[in-house]
Write a structure and sequence with these properties.
Two copies of one chain form a homodimer. Chain A has a six-stranded antiparallel barrel with strand order 1-2-3-6-5-4. A three-stranded antiparallel beta sheet of chain A has the order 8-9-10, with helices on both faces. By secondary structure, chain A is α+β, with helices and mostly antiparallel strands. In chain A, helix 5 (about 190-200) crosses helix 6 (about 240-255). Chain A is built from six helices and ten strands, in the order αβββαββαββααβββα. The interface of A and B includes residues 49, 69, 82, 148 and 150 of A.
Chain lengths: ~260, ~260
């Protein structure tokens, strides 16, 4: 667990699995986030809006233009922070949100990692296809160092990087199968995404499809909506994916029926 | 106009009155914003969510708990930044947003300024009444230094502090009449707020009321919604308020009828 600063008032709750899951879902289901960087030249904090995706190790990813202030800032100083969780309706402070303190690392174009991120990002944000290959657009991985979760009034938690990362040894093997598995599910089991979304994420009916699979869960998309189904435990063997997906479907159908 | 940094690519548009109005409306109609500060001890950027209000000179105001990271940060280093403009539906980057680089100044409890901000803030956020008087809650004015407006893809503008501040000599005189004028309008001309909201802000029908009046415009509230009607020019004589409000009503009725 992250250490509480010595001078901090004792308002933090003990970080439990519910808090960890909430933090992961907030971060992994975000379409955009507020990014804080240090403005070049002045060193002032600078907040802007960025599209967000996720790498297979749970590291959040942003796609940004080299012409923007935040990109120049991150190339000067990698220290950064992401605020995930939209306020939505009602009291903005009643909605949970997550601050992740991050260190940015630019992704080299032409690398295997770039190809993987590009594919995952475009599946999450289909419109990004229009500019992802522009020479002035670049990906940064924002590697979590620690995080502050605010689950609503009086519900504050500190989280470690470990709480937000995906450690499974099957990460790469799953990434290799991801595209095929998604195509298979969305065509041969087209009803599954909608069942996952409504049963596990409480989402409304819609034209749901699977837009991402990793060792820790599934991303579900319907138009502008994005939901995250977290597995109860990370998949540690890529061969188990089919069973995990089938069991989730069976469980949802049994519970509903 | 703000000077463009010498090494910046020429992607900025010339700042015109439309851009200034959009920036003002984004900032002045915000209920919450992302706040970027420098984390105490580490100096890392730190993004969090805050409720926002506005002082009579156009300076954005936040009400925060002394127990939070951002309050400790602002007390250590006043450099800060606000991101206003919610992503809403559709592509998050298609929605306009404004980054304001600010310098925080804590408002002394018991001061006249505190009393005025408290009244204006609670009218904007009625639920804040529950905690605004807690001893660990405090107001900061976030004085704009400059701003970056992003009006959607390829629509970037630099703004100066002047573009965001209200300079009218009638500010204080209007503030003294504000509460009475709002009560009068909301009781004697209850239909006005709805007409303002729909005609000038394109808002849907709802239970609209006036929640703020200053030299530059009117804040309109309906439940969780907040709209901002900017006057075409600042009111420079408090005695003209009645005429301005009546003319806006007449104009809306004439255009609609």
């Amino acid at each position: 667990m992250a250490e509480e600063p010595k001078d901090a008032p004792k308002v933090l709750r003990d970080t439990d699995d519910d808090a960890r899951t909430l933090a992961r879902v907030l971060l992994r289901s975000s379409r955009s986030a507020a990014l804080a960087v240090l403005e070049p030249d002045t060193g002032s904090p600078f907040a802007s809006r960025v599209l967000t995706g996720m790498d297979i190790d749970g590291v959040p990813v942003i796609l940004v233009s080299a012409l923007s202030v935040h990109t120049r800032a991150l190339r000067t100083d990698p220290r950064s922070s992401l605020l995930a969780g939209e306020p939505g309706k009602g009291d903005p402070l009643a909605h949970p949100r997550l601050t992740v303190i991050t260190e940015a690392s630019e992704v080299v174009r032409g690398s295997e990692q770039h190809a993987r991120l590009r594919e995952r990002f475009v599946r999450r944000h289909p419109k990004a296809k229009l500019y992802v290959d522009f020479p002035d657009f670049t990906f940064f991985r924002l590697v979590p160092l620690r995080a502050n979760l605010n689950g609503g009034f009086g519900k504050a938690y500190l989280l470690t990087a470990d709480d937000l990362l995906i450690r499974s040894a099957a990460r790469e093997a799953l990434a290799e199968r991801e595209s095929g598995a998604i195509e298979h599910m969305n065509s041969e089991h087209a009803e599954a995404a909608g069942i996952y979304a409504s049963h596990y994420c409480g989402a409304k009916e819609g034209n749901w499809s699977i837009s991402g699979i990793d060792a820790a869960g599934i991303d579900l998309s319907a138009g502008d909506q994005l939901e995250r189904l977290e597995f109860s435990t990370e998949i540690s063997d890529a061969g188990a994916l089919r069973t995990v997906l089938a069991d989730l479907l069976t469980k949802a159908r049994t519970t509903n029926g």
